[in-house]
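Note on ligand handling. Small-molecule inputs were canonicalized before submission; formal charges were left as drawn, and no protonation-state enumeration was performed. Where a ligand contained multiple stereocentres, the stereochemistry in the source SMILES was retained. For flavin mononucleotide, this procedure yielded the string shown in the input block below.
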Amino acid sequence: MPVTVPHFDTAFFRSALGRFATGVTVVTAETADKQPVGLTVSSFNSVSLEPPLILWSLSKSSSSLPHIQASQGYVVHVLSAAQVKLARRFAYGSQTDRFTDQPLSRTPGGLLMLADECSAWFACRHYAQHDAGDHVVLIGAVEDCARTANLPLIYHAGDFDLTPNNLPLSQA
Ligand SMILES: Cc1cc2nc3c(=O)[nH]c(=O)nc-3n(C[C@H](O)[C@H](O)[C@H](O)COP(=O)(O)O)c2cc1C
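Structure output:
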């Protein structure tokens, strides 16, 4: 149901949301003509253990949206603290630049993924999609996942956490 609050300060709302620290992921998929698409996403979260489900939200203004909706599935890569450059590239670079010189791989189920070692990854088939304001909430059924001992990248207050205990500044 649409909700309009005329007095609502969107900038303040966004800033308050920024107090919630998140991890950072890159979601990749394949277009119908087998081109890679992907973007940086922090709205990832767990949903269910049985069956294994995750969620994330995708802006309706995202160029990736139609491709991801039409795809066979997608891979959510949980970035490590050493992967802030990847996070920036997949948020601010063009789709073509994001995949230039980017090593790619396949999940056991055949979904396209980044070859880089992340903190964890989740290979998902589409389970459900929900219209939600200016975003679409995607729920994924996890068919494969993996994890490493790499510390995760943290994002809050509109920026990446590059403090020394999380990431050596030399890697920022
Ligand atoms: C840390 C971070 C988290 C982000 N999280 C999301 C997200 O959860 N959903 C989303 O739609 N965009 C998110 N974005 C923005 C997209 O990564 C960015 O707009 C990207 O350019 C979209 O690419 P596209 O339009 O080619 O799909 C995030 C950006 C950053 C830097």
